[in-house]
Amino acid sequence: MLRHPERLSVEERPELRPLGLIRSRKAFGVWTAVRGYEGLLGRLMALDGAVLDDGSRPVPNLDATVVAFGYDFRRSVADAARRLDDEIRQRVRHLWPQDPLQAARVLLVAHSMGGLVARYWAALPGNDQLCRAMLTLGTPHRGAPKALDILANGVAVGPSRIRRPREVLRGWPSVAELMPRYPAIADLRQPSHGSPHRSLERRASAANGRGRGFLRPDEVPMDWLEPLARGAAKVHQAIDACWNDMPRTGPQVTPRIGYGHGTLRGCSWDGEKVRVGRAVGTAGLGAWADDLGDGTVPAISGLPVEMERHSPQDLRVAFRHGAIVDLDEVVPWVESFERRPADLQYYRKPDERPVALCLELDELALAGRALSVAATVRGVDADLSSTAMWVTLRPEAKQGSSADVRLAWDGSGRAFHGELATALPGVYRLQVDAREVPQAGWLRAAEVVEVLDNVDLD
What CA–CA distance (Å, rounded) separates 93 from 380? Predict the structure, then answer.
């Protein structure tokens, strides 16, 4: 994608037909590295009587009870939802030919953008009767500044940028639909009495019931951004309208939200350029102000809009965006709808955050340059100065050597810091281990990192 983005242009290739889900770690280089879904499918196959259709064969197994659904990730979630509708309806009709038996038969487990697809599907006519519940893992229900950053500035590789994919990505409706839906962009323009933006500022303030200061993407008057943001807004408005009107007997939504990891959250616009970074003010974030995110999606964005009054106390999990698919809770969640006793370990005390080893790093790095890593332990208030914390960078391919570095403690920021050398291009597994952490024991966090050669840069 980074080297030859035109190969995935919607204009050049109007349709991509997926064959199952990704089953190993892959570096996609745009949204995030893909961890692979074989672990999730393996756990779901442990369910009593489970029959898997992994989507890799041209003829579906309509007797399957566990179905993997892939979709063209470039197109709108509305397009993917209509394909999902065809898939689900043919299976429901096959397994339960009589209409009265079809109600509340569907459980959806959805990761990242898949959660938006699932919610759009459930909002289609009649599907709230078919769907009993959905579990969304790291879904950007309210969007993510990272998508805006990619569309505005290209793909970040450490301090550098690859801008070649930008025009192709602006032709992908899906990326626009991942942009922030809330007023995330600080307006840094200097207003003047005769400013042509004055009316826009007044309209934005009136529409959002706030003073001037922050804008939604569809309120920023940039030629390339406005049409993308408006089209994306219509998709989300359709989802919101249906979910707000759903009866209380409609599908149960259970979001799981990664927290504590360094995540792009702050956006600004100075009248010419959009900038995105990790630093952000806490105004308007409420109970999510200190939760950061999963490395890709801000924590506050993991909550569906109609659940905005829901307490976050039982929604946070100690996972990064890719790793959240390996959440142990998935199988007990499915079994809870089969009238089995719930596993009490998944119910925490009020206001309790799970202990988490959280990372801040770039998932794309340059060969020959140092990769900086910062790690913090959340949910522990003990002295960590004597804790040993190591980071390992190991190539996914057989060639190449591993690197191990002990991270240094920084008491002022209560964080561990270090740098790793990146010699050869390729896909690597980065793993941080902390042993004998007070109040927590042994903690581990991992991420997939892609190392690029300098020739890949613009």
Answer: 51
Last residue of a domain, one of 346, 373, 390: 346
Query: How does 421-434 read in b/e, with b if 16+ C-beta sit within 10 Å?
Result: ebeebbbbbbbbbb
Residue 171 within a domain: no
pTM: 0.89
Q: Kind and range of the H or E element at 303? A: none
210 is a domain residue:
no
SS3 state of residue 72: coil
Spatial neighbors of 157 by CB under 8 A, at least 6 apart, are: 362, 364, 365, 366, 452, 456, 457
Q: Does residue 209 fall inside a structural domain?
A: no
Same domain, 132 and 102: yes
Integer Rg of the chain from CA: 22
Domain extent at residue 434: 356-456
Number of independent structural domains in the chain:
2
Lowest-pLDDT range, 57-61, 107-111, 394-398? 394-398
Q: Is 455:1 a contact under the CB 8 Å cutoff?
A: no
- Helix or strand or coil: residue 346? helix
pLDDT tens, 228-268?
999 999 999 999 999 988 887 889 999 999 999 999 999 99
DSSP 8-class letter at 104: T
Q: Is 201 within 8 Å of 173 (Cβ atoms)?
A: no
179 pLDDT exceeds 50?
yes
Residue 167 inside a domain? The answer is no
* pLDDT tens by residue, 325-372: 999 999 999 999 876 555 545 544 544 678 999 999 999 988 889 999
The reply to whether 14 and 128 lie within a common domain is: yes
> Quick one: 381 and 315 in the same domain?
no
Distance CA 12, CA 74 (A): 12
Task: Kindly report the CATH number assigned to the domain that includes residue 125.
Answer: 3.40.50
Q: Please say which residue of 320, 346, 372 terminates a domain.
A: 346
Together in a domain, 394 and 341: no
Residue 292 to residue 274: CA distance in whole angstroms: 21
